[in-house]
Amino acid sequence: MITDVHHVGIAVRDMEAALRFYAEALGLPLVKRGEAPARGAQVALLAVGGSYLELAQPTRDDSPFAEHIEEPRGGFTTWPCARTTWRRW
Fold first, then answer.
1. In what residue span(s) does the VOC domain sit (predicted)?
2. What distances in angstroms separate CA 3 from CA 19, 48, 63, 80, 81, one per listed residue?
């Protein structure tokens, strides 16, 4: 049984614009913001209830997030990571 979703990741072209939308317009609290050099990205974590929204802006062309920005259906980078409790059916 899925008990909750830990986080969802979205690649963004412009971190400042994304934060204006998610933090200011939607009111999601910013939990943490910083650089992830190994992933070639600037990242921000916002709280959504008991879960998180991770925004990632690529800072170099070989960042794993760069390819998601070019996708026509959006910049989702992380499938929702769910917590589960295992029960016998």
1. 4-89
2. 28, 15, 32, 12, 11
Match 């999601």 to its residue by tokens: 28
- For residue 89, being part of any structural domain is answered with no
32 to each of 38, 44, 67, 76, 89, how far by Cα in Å? 17, 6, 24, 19, 39
Q: What CA dihedral angle connects 28, 30, 35 and 41, to 10 degrees?
A: 0
What is the gyration radius of the CA atoms in the chain, in angstroms?
14
The pLDDT mean for the chain works out to: 83
Q: How many folded domains does the chain comprise?
A: 1
In tens, the pLDDT along 2-44 reads: 677 788 888 999 999 999 999 999 999 999 999 999 999 999 9
What is the domain-level CATH number for residue 43? 3.10.180.10
Distance of CA 10 to the CA centre of its chain: 4
